[in-house]
Amino acid sequence: MCNHKRTILNLNFIMSRVQQLLLSKKHKSNLIMQSDPDLCKTVWDPLRIFDYYASYKYAVVILNSPLNWKDDMLLHIWKKSQINLTVDGGTYRWLHYLKSQGVDLLSGQYSEYVPNLITGDMDSCPPSILEKLKSMGSIVVETPDQDHTDYTKALLQLEQYIRKDNIKLNGIYVFVDSAGRFDHIMANINTLYKSDKLIKHVQVIQIASSSLTWVLRPGLHSIIIPKILIQNNSWCGLLPVGAPVNCIVTTGLKWNLDNATLQFGGLISSSNTYDNCPEVTVNTDSPVVWTMGIEPFQKSVNNYEIPPNFY
To answer: Are 284 and 219 in contact, with CB atoms under 8 Å apart?
Structure first.
């Protein structure tokens, strides 16, 4: 009988101890959420690449599309980048842009503008140019697989490159002006949707001469907005490409979304702008495309009107 009572007492003690541990764990979790409400928030500060004084680490990827940059800003962005990659015909586009800036890369006098990596199925760049750049230090990787776009394959190769050399990046900026063939535009968006599987833990952002575009995954996001974009009522939008967004909440926009559903054939948030706030937050239950105009900002940086601390 005594042994039986002792067993019951031991079991009661164990159960009591388990309950205490569970309550303690729950209490600790609540404290963490209370003390750091932004613990699960993804912060986007995409215009840091224009701040030449910031220690912001990024890679540049140039696709085979027009480089509509009329100034030397792209030269500064390239030189500050940790890795530079040109994709097939994007290599020729880069050489053409350099010539517009008075730089003849193939002369051998401007090694700082030689791509670290050149990828693609190589059907849009002359072999003679590839051989010349290879002799100047570029790593050329032919990726003939036709089941994936050159953009997708470039991110896969870039992931291998940074993993091999243990390079830490905050972001990858893919230069592609969204004009011309609609199927190419949608293929690029499709690669954005897949980017978190292609290259993990790095923000992938498409950059054109007047806009930025990327995908917000399910969860809470904070997007830092420079004052000049707010003052100029620059446009922005949230687009549910591929599937509906069943529930989305925003702050900091002129036309905020409050537990809204976004879907093509129904509501989408296009031609939106900012509500005099330096931060936009987006809480979404599904992937959604964020896109924003940057033309006033781009012009101001080029005219040296924005100081190092431009927020």
So the answer is: yes
- What pTM, to 2 d.p., does this model score? 0.84
Strand runs labelled E in the chain: 41-44, 58-62, 83-87, 117-120, 139-142, 171-175, 203-207, 211-216, 219-224, 236-239, 245-251, 260-262, 269-272, 279-284, 288-293
> For residues 80, 84, 90 and 94, what is the CA-based torsion angle, rounded to 10 degrees?
40
pLDDT digits (tens, 9 = 90+) for 163-215: 999 999 999 999 998 767 899 999 999 999 999 999 999 999 999 989 999 99
Are the C-beta atoms of 228 and 300 separated by less than 8 Å? yes
> How is 259-300 classified by DSSP, letter by letter?
SEEE-TTS--EEEE-B-S-SEEEEEESS-EEEEEE-HHHHHH
d(CA 229, CA 47) in angstroms, rounded, equals 11
By DSSP bridging, strand 117-120 and strand 288-293 are: unpaired
Q: Are 93 and 66 in contact (CB under 8 A)?
A: yes
Task: Write down the number of H helices and E strands in the chain.
Answer: 8, 15
The whole-angstrom distance between residue 195's C-alpha and the CA centroid of its chain comes to: 9
- Return d(Cα 138, Cα 162) in angstroms, integer: 15
pLDDT tens-digit series, residues 210-258? 999 999 999 999 999 999 999 999 999 999 999 999 999 999 999 999 9
Q: Please say whether the beta carbons of 292 and 210 come within 8 A.
A: no
Separation CA 208–CA 177 (nearest Å) = 5
Beta bridge partners, 100, equal: none
Maximum mean pLDDT: which of 18-22, 69-73, 285-289 = 285-289
Q: Taking each helix axis from N to C terminus, what angle separates 73-80 and 295-302, rounded to the nearest 10 degrees?
A: 90
Ramachandran quadrant class, 137 (left: phi over 0; alpha: psi -120 to 50; beta: rest): left
SS3 of residue 169 by DSSP: coil
